[in-house]
Amino acid sequence: MPKGTFSAAHLTDISELSAQVDWDDFSLPAPERELTKDDFSLIAIGKPNREKEKWDMEIVDVRYSKREDLIYVMVIGGKILKIGKSITTMKNRVDSYHCGKDSYRVKKNATNSATNWFILQSVLAINLPVYIYALYIPQTEGKFFGWTYPNRVSKEVEGKIITAFIKKYGFKPIGNKQN
User: Fold this and answer.
1) What's the CA gap between 73 and 82, in Å, rounded?
2) Is the Cβ–Cβ distance between 71 and 153 less than 8 Å?
3) What are φ and ψ of residue 128, in 5° steps?
4) Chain centroid offset of residue 126 CA
């Protein structure tokens, strides 16, 4: 396996999330007002399918496969596992997590990320549903030399959220430590 491109272990039991932040208690200071779980919408529930090494997705909001540029929070057993972003749809991001298969990691030219492997394998091992909440970034357009393009700012917003999270709680969510 390529050196330095993967985590050595994933979570195996819900107890390993005990020190993580409770989703119900999540709040972060922001310049205009407090950011809380109420600002996020439940968009999907991933049910572990160990046989197929993926999550069977229950879609609860059509934006899951239609809306781009978002911040998401993955929650298992009421604990925050991961805060992330996607400039595409959440469906595309979950498809990327599904590339975190064990069989992909042993290939000579393995390209799946440590984060994808850690998140997918942790959810499968814990064997509880992963709840996916999204905060959608307002869609704006920019212009450059007459070309119009969508402004995607989720990367910057994610950075500000993670920085505020660390300042308040003293650590990153465990699923954010792979990158």
Assistant:
1) 6
2) no
3) -125, 155
4) 16
Structure-block tokens of residue 47: 């049910």
Q: Which residues pair with 144 in a beta bridge?
A: 147
Would you give per-residue pLDDT tens digits along the chain (179 residues)? Answer: 333 444 568 999 999 999 999 999 999 999 999 999 999 999 999 999 999 999 999 999 999 999 989 999 999 999 999 999 999 999 999 998 888 776 666 666 655 678 888 999 999 999 999 999 999 988 888 899 999 988 888 889 999 999 999 999 999 999 998 64
Sign of CA dihedral 13, 18, 24, 30: negative
What is the Cα–Cα distance from 55 to 69, expressed in whole angstroms? 22
Identify the structural domains of the chain with CATH numbers, from first to last: 14-172 (3.40.1440.50)
59 by DSSP, 3-state: which? strand
